[in-house]
Specification:
Layout (H helix, E strand, L loop, with lengths): L2 H43 L5 H6 L6 E7 L6 H9 L6 E8 L5 H8 L2 E4 L12 E7 L7 E6 L4 H11 L4 E5 L4 E2 L3 H9 L6 E11 L4 E3 L2 E4 L6 H23 L10 E5 H6 L10 H15 L4 E13 L5 H21 L10 H35 L4 H29 L6 H17 L1 H16 L18
Parallel strand pairs: 1-2, 1-6, 2-5, 8-12
Antiparallel strand pairs: 3-4, 4-5, 6-11, 7-12, 8-11, 9-10
Length: 475
């Protein structure tokens, strides 16, 4: 190749990376503005009214909380006790034992005095065979129902709960999540707010419970995680949930509700086809499908998002488990985006097709791959002696500075709105994490995304994988 032509190609590569970065900065700045506006609006809107009246009302809508459980024997009793303590008059807790190989079912039977009951079950249900339905002999545990079934994966377990529930709304959560006692009251209020649009789903912010003091299934003291990987994830979750998803909620274009805390209009979820059992990104895919269902029928609808700290979960503290988790998330993104690829820049889907889908395609799926290729390109250009050092140093410093500022804003905004971490030392530690995160944590996330996409594209082992949990701290 002619030397001048080669340098022209390199300049165009630099321009592409520069434009990509500028668009990214612009979108993140807009997201910061929208999330701030949405959070302030939410706080003002919810500063009125007494949620306890909803809890005590016999007319309160019915909710079934579906909690899939697989090999959760270590913590299942305490986790269920926590969920049973929720402040709501009309809810059912449905624990779906998805073919656990440990003593999960035995511990539930013993702790809550369960007995097998006769319940008519449609043999044509689209889920793995159900081996039994259990209810407690004690009135104090009347809200719990345990479904024992053949292992079929998380999506299959959630579908089992959806099919067997008779409630108006269903909450699909991880069994090891800790919900605040008034969580269901906030959810119901979101579903029943005055609106011309039908609320089809409600999601919420996920908080990090690692190192928090928890006793008897109750969060007693919020603490900053001791583990550094958990600290980085806390910062990441704060940015993603409090800024990113709140921004998409502001323009009613949210395409994902976390599987750890998601509530759905059961009628719409079933009409849209329930959970897809052929993806590991079921939490994202069902939101896509429910939105498309409402859009195709031209029914006004909306998806609500709650910024209040209502759900706390444990995050991985080892690099291996974290990479496996993010590997799975990357595969789930790719599967969902490919399945709904006809939405890409499709004006028929409005903001979803012209804004939300392209954002997920370019900046949630493609960006990590471009980062990885960019890193390899830098090494190659350096080896060939053609690296433009001025451009490389300038754009690296700009990206690094912007990422720190965005993280700082997320930290400051969390302190202003909710102030969960009250010690100055904790805030300074989070800011220190923001400074070093692009250098030590972000490359790990990029590598996990590359690994996940490679496994999916080359049809390697693409199962759910395992996640070993340490359990919540009790002191």
């Amino acid at each position: 190749m002619d030397d001048s032509l080669f340098h022209i190609v390199l300049e165009y590569i630099n321009i592409v990376f520069l434009l990509f970065t500028m668009v990214l900065f612009t979108m993140f700045a807009i997201m910061g503005f929208l999330s701030t506006r949405n959070t302030l609006h939410y706080q003002q809107k919810n500063s009125f009214g007494d949620l306890s009246k909803v809890m005590a009302s016999p007319l309160a809508p019915s909710i079934t909380i579906i909690a899939p459980a697989y090999n959760e024997g270590l913590t299942i009793v305490e986790n269920v006790r926590s969920l049973l303590s929720l402040q709501y008059v009309n809810f059912e807790l449905m624990v779906v034992n998805d073919g656990s190989k440990d003593d999960t079912l035995e511990k539930l039977i013993s702790a809550y005095d369960l007995e097998k009951i006769e319940r008519p079950i449609d043999p044509d249900l689209r889920c793995k065979p159900i081996r039994g339905v259990y209810k407690s002999r004690q009135r104090s545990f009347s809200k719990i129902t345990v479904i024992d079934k053949v292992n079929g994966g998380k999506s299959d377990a959630l579908n089992t709960g959806l099919f067997l529930s008779e409630s108006t709304y269903v909450g699909c959560i991880d069994v090891d999540c800790l919900l605040q006692p008034d969580a269901l009251l906030h959810v119901v209020k979101s579903f029943y707010q005055p609106s011309r649009k039908r609320v089809i789903a409600v999601g919420g912010v996920i908080r990090i419970a690692n190192s928090c003091k928890i006793s008897g299934g109750t969060l007693e003291e919020i603490r900053l995680p001791k583990n550094w990987l958990a600290k980085f994830q806390l910062l990441e979750y704060t940015r993603s949930f409090l800024l990113g998803r709140m921004a998409w909620g502001q323009i009613d274009s949210l395409l994902i509700i976390s599987g750890a805390f998601g509530f759905f209009d059961r009628e719409i979820a079933l009409a849209a086809g329930a959970y897809d059992t052929n993806t590991v990104g079921e939490d994202m895919e069902i939101v896509f499908r429910m939105r498309r269902y409402m859009h195709d029928l031209k029914i006004p609808y909306t998806v609500e998002y709650i910024p209040d700290p209502l759900c706390w979960t444990e995050v991985p503290e080892s690099a291996k488990i974290l990479i496996n988790q993010r590997d799975r998330w990357a595969r789930g993104n790719l599967e969902t985006l490919y399945k709904h690829r006809d939405m890409f820049f499709n004006p028929d889907y409005g903001r979803l097709g012209m804004l939300s889908y392209p954002y997920w395609f370019f900046y949630e799926w493609l960006a990590p791959l471009l980062e990885f290729l960019g890193f390899l390109s830098v090494i190659l250009f350096y080896y060939l002696g053609i690296l433009n050092w001025d451009f490389f140093i300038a754009i690296t410093l700009v990206v690094y500075s912007f990422s720190i500022m965005f993280s700082f804003y997320a930290i400051v905004w969390e302190v202003y709105c909710y102030n969960q971490y009250k010690k100055a030392r904790d805030i300074l530690l989070l800011m220190f994490c923001a400074i070093i995160e692009p250098l030590v944590f972000h490359p790990l996330i990029v590598w996990a995304a590359v690994k996940g996409n490679s496994r999916k594209l080359f049809k390697m082992n693409t199962g759910w994988g395992t996640q070993v949990r340490k359990g919540f701290a009790k002191a």
